[in-house]
Amino acid sequence: MLPVIILQGITEKSNKMPGEKKSKKEDKAASAKGRGKVKLEIYGEEMVEKVVKLSGNSGRVYLPPDWVGCRVKIVRVD
Predict the structure, then answer these.
(1) 23 is a domain residue
(2) Using one digit for the tens of pLDDT, what is the confidence trace for 20-59?
(3) 9 assigned to some structural domain
(4) Contact by Cβ (8 Å): 43, 1
(5) Is-contact 38 7, C-beta < 8 A?
(6) pLDDT band, residue 10 (cuts 50/70/90)
(7) Is residue 27 included in any domain, yes or no?
(8) Which DSSP string corresponds to the chain?
(9) Which pTM was predicted?
(10) Using an 8 Å Cβ cutoff, are 9 and 38 in contact?
């Protein structure tokens, strides 16, 4: 069974009339809101939760050896 991911975005309501332009301040606030968290729903076989360790100029997560050759998906939770 292949994993399925469902992303649920954040929507915002506006009390502006159609055709009315947004100010730069409102545009900046809207883009900051869009960077919030989203809900992810993933179907798979197993899950582990680990902290990424520094490895040179990158990060590294060690996984169980029986996962070698398997497809995995990484989700940042914080």
Answers:
(1) yes
(2) 665 655 555 555 556 688 999 999 999 999 999 999 999 9
(3) yes
(4) yes
(5) yes
(6) very low
(7) yes
(8) ----EEEE-------PPTTPPPPHHHHHHHHHHTTS--EEEE--S-----PPEEETTEEE----GGGTTS--------
(9) 0.49
(10) yes
